[in-house]
Fold this sequence. Notes:
Layout: H1 8-15, E1 21-22, H2 32-35, H3 39-49, E2 52-54, H4 57-64, H5 67-76, H6 85-103, E3 109-112, H7 114-143, H8 147-159, H9 177-186, H10 202-215, H11 236-261, E4 266-272, H12 279-282, E5 311-316
Antiparallel strand pairs: 1-3, 2-3, 4-5
Amino acid sequence: MKSWQPSEAHLLLLSKFLIGQALKNMAAAYWDEPLGEPAGAAVQRFIALGWLVPATLAAKLGSRFRASDLKPLLNERGLRVSGRKDELIERLIAADETGMTALVAEMNVYECSPEARARAEQYKLEQAEKRATTEDRALNQLRAHDFAGASQTVAAFEAAQVFSRGIGIDWSTHNVSRDVGQLKIILGTKPKILDSLADAEWEPLRVAVGMMALWGTGSAKAWLPVSFVRVAKFDADTAARMLLFASNHKLKLAEYRQLSDSGVRIKGYQVSVTTDSCQTCKKMVGKHYGLNDLPELPHAECTHAYGCRCMAMPVLD
Length: 317
């Protein structure tokens, strides 16, 4: 057993014990395939190696209670309720160690030993560095308009993950053509809802939105230069989402056109709005449009504080 070397999946599982974890919560079947063994067996191996040890009282309390759950306990004992979660726990233990011990007496909680903690933290650091390096490479590829390269870079990263992003996606055989199509749209789209954006700001915004699309995130801030000047009525992330929605709308229109060309009978199109859509957008409800006379979406005259989120939907015959 001493010669056994953990896989990345084992190191990822080990890292979950950097904070105290109840053993019953760490036996989910989805771990079994990447581990190559039942998760419970892997955990028992960690215990046998001395990598996992019974959790401290503080770790048990941290595993069982949220910060909001701890505050009534503090109130009952006349203790301050402000501070970080770990500070609340320390305060409770100092005031009533016996009572706190009784609250978690039946919990079978383990955490990393000092040796395992160093190993798990090193693994997390290496993974974060790999992610940062991959993001930098994809960002530079987008700036150079190497759309296929950026897509392949992200796909290769995801394929190497213990748990890759998305459900049912095989990143090892990822088809980059849809990514390339969307990135071309993003890098060439200028929705009217963002028409107050300065000319010099379009390229950095488009590149950041391209990263949003590739990584499946809802924020562009990490990839926008610090000098970026946002649109007057939107923050940077809202502006980015409007550009992403505009590209998605154009992709959908292309897909609808293909459906129509393939013989699917589509009577027309309607615009779907949200419950809090602005009055301008709500005026589109119930109207039928042809594919070529749909209004631009996001709607250029939308007045919602977070921007237009309306979508075009086909009406089948």
